[in-house]
Write a structure and sequence with these properties.
31% of the residues lie in helices and 16% in strands. It is of the alpha/beta class and 225 residues long. It has a 6-stranded parallel β-sheet with strand order 1-2-3-4-5-6. Strand 1, helix 3 and strand 2 form a beta-alpha-beta unit. The two termini are 22 Å apart. 35% of the residues are buried. The structure holds iron/sulfur cluster (SF4). Iron/sulfur cluster binds next to loops.
Length: 225
């Protein structure tokens, strides 16, 4: 699949508009996951579990470089399920001078030591965004997430926790759980997304998202943004 690099020739780019829009990108490399959070699209029967084509991803990274994209995050599903490919994508990003991050559930860090070994095999990985919230914690114990945080910090990654929430109290609980890392990591609450799970009726939607459509295969968690 070829990106529309014509956009780069538009007048807007001169003004920096397009450039700022594409300064960061996400690539969903797989919809497979080793968890099954109840708010997630991976539980959905209609989802395709075909992984992104290996050569396509490498080609997209080349095109990102050409377009001036400065950062890429690999998402899923769970990207570490495809660890070998993820490693290659991260290495390629580093070779191209693109910041590489990954959005993960942290399940690969059964122990801190195991986590460190895995992260050391990806020296080009700069950012570790770990999803941990009410929904993920039903599957992935906070101890595992703490292992992943510690492995990330020990290997010099920028570590943050992504918190999907419906009620703001849920975020407070997450701050409490990870308070020992408060000056070392970033905690990013992600405004509740209009998913179709049992809590969906509680969600106050932003006006532009009153009649949202699911963006197919954009994100393993079925985010509408
Ligand atoms: S929300 Fe994330 S960890 Fe949970 S099932 Fe979906 S992709 Fe996996």
């Amino acid at each position: 699949m070829k990106l529309d690099t014509n956009l780069l020739n538009m007048e807007e780019r001169k003004k920096g508009i397009i450039h700022s829009v594409i300064s960061g990108a996400f690539i969903s490399i797989t919809n497979k996951c080793n968890a099954a959070c109840r708010h997630c699209i991976v539980k959905d029967d209609v989802i395709s579990f075909t992984d992104a084509d290996y050569n396509d991803v490498l080609d997209w990274l080349e095109q990102f470089k050409e377009c001036g994209v400065k950062a890429v995050h690999f998402v899923g599903g769970e990207p570490f399920v495809l660890r070998k490919q993820l490693c290659d994508y991260v290495n390629k990003s580093e070779e191209l001078g693109i910041y590489a991050g990954v959005v993960t559930n942290g399940l690969w860090a059964k122990t801190v030591e195991e986590g460190i070994t895995i992260l050391k095999s990806m020296p080009g990985l700069k950012g570790l965004v770990i999803s941990s919230d009410k929904y993920h914690l039903e599957f992935i114990n906070e101890r595992i997430v703490k292992n992943a945080i510690e492995a990330g910090l020990a290997t010099g990654k920028f570590v943050s926790i992504n918190v999907t929430y419906v009620e703001s109290d849920e975020v407070k609980e997450i701050y409490q759980i990870y308070k020992e890392y408060q000056n070392k990591i970033s905690i990013q609450p992600v405004k509740a997304m209009p998913f179709e799970g049992e809590d969906s009726k509680k969600i106050k939607r932003f006006k532009p998202f009153q009649t949202p459509k699911r963006v197919e295969t954009y994100c393993g968690i079925g985010n509408f943004f």
